[in-house]
Amino acid sequence: MNIESKGFVLHTRPYKETSFLVDIFSENHGRVRCVAKGYRRSTSRQRAESLSLFVPYNFTWRGKNDLKTLVNAETCEMNLSLSGERLFVGLYVNELLYNLLAIYDPSKEIYAGYFELVNFLGTSARYNGKLRCFELLLLEYLGYGLVLDIEYESGNTIELEKKYEYLHGYGLSPFESQSENRDVYVGADLLAIQDQRFDDIHIEKVARRLIRSAIDYQLDGKLLNSRKLYQQYLASTKSDSNIGQC
Amino acid sequence: MGLKCPQDSNFLFSLVFEYMQEHILSKLVDDLARFPGIGKKTSQRMAIHLLNKDRKGAEEISASIQEALSKVRKCGRCRALTEFDICSICQSEKRSKSKICVVENLQDLYAIEQGGSFRGRYFVLYGHLSPIDGISADDLGIDLLIDQLSNGEVQEIIIATNLTVEGQATAYFIAEKARSLDITVSRIAHGVPVGGELEYLDGNTLNLAIETRQGF
Q: Fold for domain A82-246?
C-alpha cells in the first residue's frame, strides 16, 4: 500500500549503482528511511525531480519493512535555495534532526517548526532567534524541555539577580561558589530566554550557550560536524563570528 | 588426527584439493564482483572467460593492476591519479597556471577535459562536504588547495562541484577561503542543457535558469 506525506529530505547517501538511501522527515510519519531506486541514473525519469535538501516534497513510498521504497517525490512548493552562511545553518539543523529524532515518531509541531525555519532561512538573514526557538521546541519534544522559571529541588521561583547553574536532566540549581568550571546563568537572563526574547543580542548569546550545552547532553558525547564546519566557514568570512553561531 | 590407512589419506587429500579449487575460484568471482556495475553472475562469466579462454589476457590484467598499484598515486598538486609526482596536466606548459577548476571527482575532470574548452589546471576533492557522513574540509584536501592559491600564481578559481546542496556548501566554503586571498571566484553556470527543450525541464532547473539569466 502506498503511503503519501509531505516532507523534506534530511540526507541522501549513494546506494548500489543507481540508487540513493534517503532519510525523509515527513509531516505525518516522522523520520522515514527509503531506497530511491534509479534516482542516480542520469537518464532516469525521476532524475527530473532530483532529491534536494530544504525543498518541500510530496513523497509517496511503500513497503512493510523499516526500509521503505520511494515511489515518487514531487516538489510541492517554490524552491527556496539557501545560500552562504544560511546553508551551513540548514545543514546543522538537518544533522540535529538526523541524530536526535527517532525513526517513525511523527511530530507535526517539529515539522511545522522546521518548515518555518527553512522558509525563514531562505528569505531572511536574521535567523538567530528563530533557530533558538526551534532548538527549544526540539528539546521540549525530546522530553528535555528547559524549565527556566523555578529551581528543580526547592520549587522556588527564579530571582532576577541570583546566579544559577543548569543541571541537565534535572533543572536549575542555585550557584554555589565552591563549584568550579560550571556554566553560570543570571536569573533575569533565564527568564528572558523562557520568554524567547532573542531580539536582545546578549540574551540570544546566553541562550545559545545554554541550549548548546543541553543539546550536547542529548547527543551523549557525539560531536556535530556541521557545527565545526560552520565555525570554519565563519572564520574565513569577514562577518562577525559572534553572530549566528550554531 | 592420525590417518593410518592410505586410502583414507587419499580421500581426504582429494576433498581438500576440491575445496581449495573451489575456494580460489570463488574468491576470484567475489573479487571481480567488487567492480562497480558488476554483479555475481557477470563476475562468474568474467572469471570463466579469463581462466578458460584468455589466460594470457588474465596475466596481463594481473600485471597491469600490480604495476598501477605500485606506481600510480595522487598528483602532489591537483590530487588527480598519476604515475609521476606531478601529473601531465599540471606539468604542461601550454596550460594556464592562473586558473584552477575544482571538481568533486576524477570522472568530472575527465568530462571537462573531453569538452576541451578549459585550458587551465584542476583540483580534485574526491567528494563533497557532508556533516552527517563525517566528511570535513580536511578530508577533501582543501588545505592543499588553499596553499596553492596563496602562492600568487592563481588568479581565478572555477568551482565545478555538483549542484546538490552538499556540492553548493563545498562551493561556498572554498569560495570564502579564496576570496579572503583576493582571488576571483566563479561557479560553472547551471540551467538548460544544450539541445534541451524547456517543456521537459523540471521546475527547479527552470527557476535557476531564469534567475541566473545572462545579457544577450
A: de novo design (two linked rop proteins) (1.20.1440)
